[in-house]
């Protein structure tokens, strides 16, 4: 892209850079990592509502589903079926804990490659599955792939991005996730119409396509300047920085990268450091933001939209079509965040999105409650079912420009370098743990809590919205080194931040303490 940009924000370093085609292309390819996560998120809901798949692996669920007199809320309740969906997230949680070492020692691209490779093998296991064991092994391998990708790709994007557009580039990861979800639901829509076992095999097997894309992408991608410096390739790092910034005048940014690398080498125990009182705001935020993101209930829609729509009385084809529509709406609405997050700020999006989700969840719960009642044996007419789909779309839109992208962006931008790796690992693993829990418990919860399930998530949306209102200061346009100023000025967090931490960045603090 033409034109040079110089930062105008007070206190931000005036790095000189152009938005080069190279940085776009590398970040575009880098974002493929989000695709594999998204494809997986989107494919399992559709597959678990395909009759031949259920008949083959989950005959009990299939029988229940066929039984028209069964309680609507419990049609799909099966521990094994949810284990199929959620096993992936336990694997991703575990792999994300050690992926950070590979990312650091061998570079970001090799973590991405490994992620693509294990994902590829997993897709083969799933596509050719003959029994439940093969299905679960496949899911676990896919999970390892997702853990590696989610650990390395956001870091890769942030390091490659021009500093003042880091927020928008970071949101690109979420755009890729949702794109993967949408492609998966479109594929499900067509494969669900195929006779016999071929449909679900194609759906699960096609996961190999994004896997190959990320593998090839990782091989051709350059490594980030930060990673090159970290591994001792200082001269190559400078050349890389010059080529992605489109200028030879990168001395200031380059020096900052060198300083940051020196600093991080001096911090021997990031896990111990993050427990110090002065990092309490970051510790609490990196635990609570991913927790709350999952407690919005979004993955009930992501995983089980087709199942949910069938529960509402839609036919299998109409259910998949509705899931496709909600996915496309989520994709479009994520761009709202990309274009506004640096202008309106994080808090406005969090609060607005929270209120929108709250209202729509209460309306969905109330409508389902009135129509199905507590026994779950009532009927939902066509127009009411359509109204519920519309409410689900409003809910999804609210998530798409708030907790979706910000759930990844905010934890990654609030931590100073000396604790960033530990904070990122906490963020990914808390996210995966609660993704697992929601995936594992949703069908049982729907069966027992019935329409109250929507009120359950609405309750958490109230808590998280109040939490953001009271506890999260605005971080837009604040450089990470200046973040302590924001925490210090906060009515609650201020007391945790030592006075001397405010007037100096991490680098100066480090020098002072040496
Ligand atoms: C969340 C996922 C979710 C996805 C799509 C991501 O930010 O972490 O759990 O499935 O958005 O909604």
UniProtKB/TrEMBL annotation:
One of its GO terms (cellular component) is plasma membrane. GO terms for molecular function: monosaccharide transmembrane transporter activity; sucrose:proton symporter activity. PROSITE patterns: MFS (PS50850), SUGAR_TRANSPORT_1 (PS00216), SUGAR_TRANSPORT_2 (PS00217). Coiled coil: none annotated. It holds the Pfam family Sugar_tr. The keyword Transport applies. It is a multi-pass membrane protein. Keywords: Membrane, Sugar transport, Symport, Transmembrane, Transmembrane helix, Transport. Signal peptide: none annotated. It is found in: Membrane. InterPro entries: MFS_dom (IPR020846), MFS_STP/MST-like_plant (IPR044778), MFS_sugar_transport-like (IPR005828), MFS_trans_sf (IPR036259), STP/PLT_plant (IPR045262), Sugar/inositol_transpt (IPR003663), Sugar_transporter_CS (IPR005829). The chain crosses the membrane at residues 23-43, 80-98, 135-157, 169-192, 198-221, 283-307, 319-341, 348-368, 388-410, 422-445, 451-472. SUPFAM superfamilies: MFS general substrate transporter. It comes from the Eukaryota. Residues 26-476 form the Major facilitator superfamily (MFS) profile domain. Belongs to the major facilitator superfamily. Sugar transporter (TC 2.A.1.1) family. This is Major facilitator superfamily (MFS) profile domain-containing protein.
